[in-house]
Write a structure and sequence with these properties.
Blueprint (H helix, E strand, L loop, with lengths): L2 E6 L8 H15 L3 E5 L6 H9 L3 E3 L5 H10 L4 E5 L6 H8 L3 E5 L11 E4 L16 E4 L8 H4 L7 E3 L7 H4 L8 E3 L10 E4 L10 H10 L4 E6 L15 E6 L5 H7 L2 E5 L3 H8 L3 E5 L5 H9 L4 E5 L9 H11 L1 H7 L3 H4 L4 H10 L2
Parallel strand pairs: 1-2, 1-4, 2-3, 4-5, 5-6, 6-7, 10-11, 10-13, 11-12, 13-14, 14-15
Antiparallel strand pairs: 8-9
């Protein structure tokens, strides 16, 4: 195998999750000296184009029909195609296979009837769901196969550990990690400095709702230094921070992994970035925005890997559990440390190598 095509899209309304995980696989394939071509549309997002350019990846308009996909594969001499899309005609995968092209379909639960050689569902708990793959197909399921970019993997550090008892944590967050007694990384917040908080809802805030989460943070009245990612310049103008609360808005950025690594607490949605947070051992408070995020949210929270805020609009409910949870995380460094302790062992960063092995095996 010499050349692999990746068919995925990104944009202000559909987000960048598909592109980011495909870039991770592209890096792995390039490391193995394969040529990689990206077929799709990045919706005019300049920083997404920069991600491709920085990796030396060519972007070609993505075909949308089975016949067009086959023509593109033949024109580009593709030996395999990776498809990661909720919208692409699912018959494209079968047409490629009939043309002799090996197909990897990246899915999130529903395979949409695609006919692929390899199916990848990198979500936590996917390994326990029934395998409905066609006979002869390979199914890769669970966070053992999580696709992480070099930008994320290189930020992981080995740190001293200490043992934290779960009973030392406030009741408002203890429920989401009951039974935790494992060693945890030792991290501390500098004396007198409020915790650094990173708040984002996907790489682009596609639903335009990050201000709801920021409002929930402000409502706790606890001090913090927050960086909020949103393309909407006036999205936070209505907020009135309390004493000790500082909010800094930035537009979508390709520097998100570094911002995650520098944060004491990350408040985000239950999307693909969760695996990055677990890999880096970050305390996270999650909300679910779209219905398709709910299964992953419930799996992660029920296993004590993140604090749960519930559906997004619950984050601002007066005197609700989400607000109490946020306040506990903002005011107790030990609680944040304990919450982030299980992720690094669960998401080891080698998932993309396992996926590449399966794709390249004939």
């Amino acid at each position: 195998m010499n050349r692999v095509g990746i068919r995925c899209d990104a944009g202000a309304t559909i987000g960048v999750g598909h592109l980011m995980r495909c870039l991770a696989l592209a890096e792995e394939l390039r490391d193995r000296r394969l040529e990689v071509v990206v077929l799709g549309d990045v919706g005019g997002l300049g920083w997404a184009r920069e991600q491709l350019a920085r990796r030396g990846l060519t972007l070609i308009p993505g075909p949308d029909s089975p016949a067009a996909m086959v023509r593109a594969a033949r024109r580009l001499a593709l030996d395999a195609v990776v498809i990661d899309s909720y919208d692409l005609d699912p018959r494209c995968s079968g047409a490629l296979r009939e043309a002799g092209v090996r197909v990897l379909a990246i899915v999130d639960g529903d395979d949409r009837g695609q006919d692929a050689d390899v199916y990848l569902d990198q979500n936590l708990g996917a390994e326990r769901r029934p395998d409905r793959s066609p006979a002869g197909a390979v199914r890769l399921a669970g966070v053992r196969y999580a696709l992480l970019r070099d930008d994320v993997r290189r930020l992981r550090r080995q740190e001293p550990v200490e043992t934290v008892r779960p009973e030392a944590a406030p009741e408002s967050v203890k429920a989401v990690r009951r039974g935790t007694t494992e060693p945890v990384p030792r991290r501390s917040v500098a004396a007198g400095r409020p915790p650094r908080v990173l708040c984002f809802l996907g790489g682009t805030d596609a639903a335009g709702v990050v201000s709801v989460v920021a409002s929930g943070l402000v409502a706790t009245r606890a001090p913090f230094l927050a960086t909020v990612v949103t393309p909407r310049a006036g999205a936070l103008d209505h907020l009135v921070p309390a004493d000790g609360q500082v909010i800094h808005r930035i537009p979508p950025t390709d520097d998100l992994p570094r911002l995650i690594a520098a944060a004491d607490l990350v408040v985000t949605a239950a999307g693909g970035s969760v695996w990055e947070l677990l890999h880096l051992g970050k305390a996270a408070a999650l909300a679910w925005v779209a219905e398709n995020q709910r299964p992953a949210y419930e799996e992660v929270v029920s296993r004590g890997l993140a604090a749960g805020l519930g559906r997004l609009d619950a984050a601002t409910a007066a005197d609700g559990p989400a607000r109490a949870c946020l306040r506990a995380l903002l005011t107790c460094a030990r609680t944040r440390t304990e919450l982030g302790m299980r992720g690094p062992a669960l998401v080891d960063g080698e998932g993309r190598a396992r996926v590449a092995d399966a794709l390249l095996s004939s």
